């Protein structure tokens, strides 16, 4: 009886937490489909009196969001691929090879996580200006191909737990280190690769400051910049903002649901027992 009560209490707490976390998304959805005139009413109606689904179409057509969507997709796909693969390669080097200064370089890499982006923005702007990359998508894509400290650390910790027998057996069979990395370690790293890709996708997809600083050509704007255009000097179109916000959350939600199986199966021993 006590066990049943305990389980019921746990489920109640989890349901309340789920409602608390989902409430902002539900409120955004309800705001997106309500009449803009209702936003100023008091008391606030939680459920709109009428549902205006055409708000999504009107908000999308109010700005060239199709162009912004294409730009966001290009940046996100290329940056995520670059960050995931480069971080995996660097993590492989730190985890499976011994070289002089290995500990120093690893600590130096981790220390970069403590440097805020605000400190780097001016030097990076000057660097990209020297490369003639301003007003292009390159500043949002190319740096990702040099890896990220957090994702390197995440993958390195996983690779350190894999026995040396794996690569020693492969070397005996005539495999080189490139084949060992691509055919043995990358398949074992699927959970970490999926987790890193999803986490970095959320960062890139929602990035506002990067495109704002490096891009002034409206043809190169991404979705977050387009979203900010609904906010004027004196008025703000909250209905359109919420409509585009709801649409922007769909890709990240889809990516999470597609990759959750790999994330939940991220037990190291599961990849070693095979």
Structure description:
With 274 residues, the protein is mainly α. The protein is 70% helix and 0% strand. The chain has 14 helices and no strands. Helix 1 packs antiparallel against helix 13, helix 2 crosses helix 13 and helix 3 crosses helix 7. It is globular, with a radius of gyration of 23 Å.
Name the helicity range.
Answer: over 70%
The sequence of SSEs as H and E is HHHHHHHHHHHHHH
Uncertain runs: 267-274
How many domains make up the 3D coordinates?
A: 2
Would you state the CATH class of the largest domain?
Mainly Alpha
List the helices and strands and how they pair.
Blueprint: H1 2-32, H2 54-62, H3 65-96, H4 102-111, H5 117-130, H6 138-141, H7 149-160, H8 165-172, H9 177-188, H10 190-205, H11 209-214, H12 223-228, H13 238-264, H14 268-272
Helix pairs in contact: 1-13, 2-13, 3-7, 3-10, 10-13
Keywords: Cell membrane, Membrane, Transmembrane, Transmembrane helix, Transport
Family: Belongs to the binding-protein-dependent transport system permease family.
InterPro entries: MetI-like, MetI-like_sf
